[in-house]
Amino acid sequence: KRGREMSYTIGSLFTGYGGLDIGVAEALNEESKVLWCSDVAPGPRKVLPVREPDAPNLGDITQINWCEIEPVDVLVGGSPCQDLSLAGRRAGMHPGTRSGLWESMLGAINILRPHLIVWENVYGALSASAFSLLESSEGHLGVHGGGPAIRALGRVLGDLASYGYDAWWTIVRASDVGAPHRRARLFLAASDSNREPWYQRWQPMPSKTSRGRKLTESSGRSGKELRLLPTPTSSQMDGRKSPGFSGSGSFYDIVHGGRPGIIPYIRGIVRWEKAFREAPYLTDDNGRLSTSFVEWMMGLPEEWVTAPELGLSRREQLQILGNGVVPQQATYAIRILAEIAEAVKEGE
Q1: Dihedral angle at the C-alpha atoms of 146, 150, 153, 156, nearest 10 degrees?
Q2: pTM of the predicted protein model
Q3: When comparing pLDDT for 65 and 83, which is higher?
Q4: Are strands 74-77 and 9-13 parallel, antiparallel or unpaired?
Q5: Helix 102-112 with 152-162: angle, nearest 10 deg
Q6: Long-range contacts from 56-62, C-beta under 8 angstroms, 24+ separation
Q7: Is the dihedral of CA 312, 23, 201, 112 positive or negative?
Q8: DSSP-assigned letters across all residues of 241-266
Q9: Which pLDDT tens digit goes with each residue over 103-135?
Q10: Alpha helices per DSSP H over the chain
Q11: How many Å apart are CA 146 and CA 227, to the nearest integer?
């Protein structure tokens, strides 16, 4: 089934360096246009005017009057994950937390009524607690045993359903598309149940990454399991504080730990080189983890965030990369969600 040859408009929230936008556009139609974006962090405020010069940054999402903003076909966003992440505080999706900014995105959905919504977040959204009006007091839905049953993903699904949106979600790892690190992420697609199904209006285009097939961690001629690099995070990429969340050692140990160093990860690196582009050096001129190498791990074009003219400090580069989305991972997820949505519809 061929999709319609058409462009569409994208509104981007919590934009970062725009990785989710790139992935969604690649999945649906490369001629799409980001109409506006929103981010308040220093790094994105430097990157976005260069990478999306025609898309104004609306700034603080909590201060936007959505009645004054031009509607878009597709609304994408990965609301802050610090309070949901398994490596974070696990404060959950509650009022006053950064992850609670989902409510601001919901406000945009209510006014703009986009045809398609794409929400991305960490794996911990499946287990982190969340506030919901359904369980605002004891005895309501979700209260059983010693704690709430409503989790962050459940809150999002419930909110979307109350606004008339059908939703589908999946977990995809960056390593599923060949990247040399796991980075499991939740991807959700939702569309207005009273309008034409999104997967018919915009049939996802075949992925160029890894010929559109899922790559497993045992891919390769030898059949041996690949050793994956640590997943880039927004902090501690040069430190010892948070190794192990990816099942591997820390970047500090790989760069400074002596033998065997990078050697166990070579097969995974070569696999990503074949699927994507040649890897830059692991370390910079000062012997530190190269931000260009991390940029490559995240599936970005060369100097997407590391170009000198952007003016990002090393710290800002690592932070924006650690908070970002692997575009190829998002593309693959959208293709999966389209298949799920169509299969569910045909089974009704």
Answers
A1: -150
A2: 0.85
A3: 65
A4: parallel
A5: 20
A6: 57/15, 61/13, 61/14, 61/101, 61/104, 61/105, 61/108, 62/101, 62/104
A7: negative
A8: SSTTTTSS--HHHHHHS-TTTTGGGH
A9: 889 999 999 999 999 999 988 888 776 666 555
A10: 19-28, 42-51, 102-112, 152-162, 198-201, 251-256, 266-275, 291-297, 314-322, 327-347
A11: 39
φ, ψ at 196 (rounded to 5°) = -55, 135
Tell me 218's DSSP state: T
Residue that is written with structure tokens 């980001």 in the block: 34
- Which residues on adjacent β-strands are paired with residue 283? 289
Q: What are 198's two structure tokens? A: 């999104």
Whose tokens are 């192990």? That residue is 244
Comparing CA positions, the residue from 47, 58, 54 lying closest to residue 19 is 47
Cα–Cα dist 165/115, whole Å? 9
Per the DSSP assignment, residues forming a β-bridge with 121 are 186
List the Cα angle 301/207/329 in 5-degree steps: 60
Radius of gyration of the chain (CA): 20
Q: What is the pLDDT of residues 21-80, one digit of tens each?
A: 999 999 987 678 999 999 999 999 999 999 999 999 999 999 999 999 999 999 999 977
Q: In this structure, what are the phi and psi dihedrals at residue 75, rounded to the nearest 5 degrees?
A: -115, 125
Q: How many secondary structure helices (H) and strands (E) does the chain include? A: 10, 8
Contact 228, 189 (CB under 8 A): no
Token pair for residue 107? 């406000």
Mean pLDDT of the chain: 82
